[in-house]
Anaerobic selenocysteine-containing dehydrogenase (Rhizobium soli), 712 residues
Amino acid sequence: MNVATPIPESPVVGHTSVGHTVCPHDCPSACALDVDLTADGRIGRVRGSSDNSYTAGVICAKVARYTERIYHPGRLMVPQRRMGAKGEGLWQEISWEAALDEIADAFVKAEAKHGSEAVWPYFYAGTMGQVQRDSIERLRHAKKYSGFMGTICTNMAWTGYVMGTGALRGPDPREIAKSDCVVIWGTNAVSTQVNVMTHAIKARKQRGAKIVVIDIYDNPTMKQADVKLVLRPGTDAALACAVMHVAFRDGYADRAYMAKYADDPAGLEAHLKSRTPEWASAITGLTVEEIEGFARLVGTTAKSFFRLGYGFSRQRNGTAAMHAALSIATVLGSWQHEGGGAFHNNGEIYRFNKAELMGTAYKDPDIRMLDQSQIGRVLTGDAEALRHRGPVTALLIQNTNPMNIAPEQRLVREGFLRDDLFTAVHEQFMTDTAKVADIVLPATMFLEHDDLYRGGGHQHILLGPKLVEPPATVRTNLFVIEELAKRLGVDGFAGFGMDERTHIDRILTASGWGSYDALKADKWIDAQPDFDTAHYINGFGYPDGKFRFSPDWVNGPSPDRTPDSVGPLGPHAQLPRFPDHVDVIETADAEHPFRLATSPSRSFLNSSFAETKSSVEKEGRPDVMIDPTDAARLGIVDGDIVTLGNSRGKIRLHARLVAGAKPGVLIAEGLWPNDAHLDGEGVNVLTGADPVAPFGGAAVHDNKVWLRREVA
């Protein structure tokens, strides 16, 4: 526990006070925040808490400008009913009672006609608060509505990491500051996880540490690097294999460590004999000298910290790529040292018991599980996506915006526009998904309700208390779930009938983390395991304590394992026995000579913040980054309108000529609202929803496309 100032019950009347809370947005940083509270009950300045050892006083610029979002004139304020055709934009204001009655009535009718699985509660990480995000699962299980496989973010990265370590945890991420070489791989941390850079820069300033950045283009994080490795999309595993080849070849491999802690180092070494820097150079586009130099740097630096990001979850071979990059730390024995090892996510350390919150006691294993990433296929009647059962005819959507962020957008739109589909959306703004709903409900923001958080990218359990009153006509996620439960006759089930603070208290108590009151007094709990546990000194997470160079891709551990009723997905038989480049990506071909990545931008977070004026001004407009040599060959100049296309569709964007990616690679940053694009369709028209091996996922950075200049 930390020593912290208490959280006030409410803003102090008569002068400005400071409240303490947590950023709720979909980011591993889960930043601890200090928020100025004014005498009239509004928020003022928002900043990172300097008392929190991970946040360390730093937050991203978009959250620092949160007053712009919470007091936005376009914020949804009252429930609305669609009046015209879907997407036409004609609405009638209605009461909360009427809105909730209509939603419940639609669900009852859907169930009566097609069974309970016709209703699909659909949500994700628009808030990372445990109560406001996950209470929808309690309603799902109580009513036996269709299950939800959350595949759009973590599956490949988490699976690849845990297949190696046997556990979703790693070294204290604050140890980055104690490293002599920080390898930031597969994450644009300056734009998306700013606190990683806080600790990396500290290591550079205090220890002279080298910062290595590995990514597919010259992004803001790359500009902070001492060593820049720009590789072709989907080729990370080839680089990792070559680095390990050099480690074995040149004596950097810690054979004694591997003999104690790894399953088959001899088999790995034999496998890597042919994975030379020359071999990897041809695949990655890096020079042999770049590969050799990187291998030598980490091979001769005991305290090398590999910070592995979510970019691995955006490629069809991402599971194998994460595992390969992770394996370098085991070959080198980096885990033995403070400031060394490999870290991705600390999800396992919290041990939250959310059975009551989520209603798992009445979960029915026979209810079908539908894939979040395949919502377009589900809503257009794809038999396999529907698990060969009946249609989905009613949706309740919280904390996500599938009409913008889901792949195969033309199918998604077609599905949402079905006349027989009823959609209720609980949102803060009129998003692309809200625009095609039948009922839209206004939602609170994080400063207006209580919730409990945990940091995937660090080690803190944090309380996010209500700091200001919401608008009188706006309601929490929990309120909506509770009110629907009453109307649907399941409010007597265990877990219903409690407020946020009671849920938080019961989760903490059941999980052995104390109580709401104790957390309220302390603001957060440092849950970081001891050094030996975090660094696997007592053995890795498998029963034999061995790291798996050769994992069982189908039967091995994964937090994202598909249920037995679904089984392994994608081309799992092609996953390699040992770390290797797996060519299951959408490789360029004669018809589609370019590879497109839909990378995150600095001022948006998924589809959030795309409504705020300052974020839009900083991002400018939707565009596509093109290498100048490719542009010259095609007669494209900066600012031209170009068309990108593949078998899924085509979109038009403005060209932005940027040196820094490999020729043949296109980058479209940020998820702009669909209507910000020239033809009203966003970049996810071009992304695919085919399941990724072995347990699904959305490979949204893995697309082959053609590119043409628009002729006036």
Q: What stands out?
A: The chain is about 30% helix and 15% strand. The domain at 594-709 is CATH 2.40.40.20 (Barwin-like endoglucanases). Residues 1-14 have pLDDT under 50 and may be disordered. The CA atoms of residues 146 and 566 lie 13 Å apart.
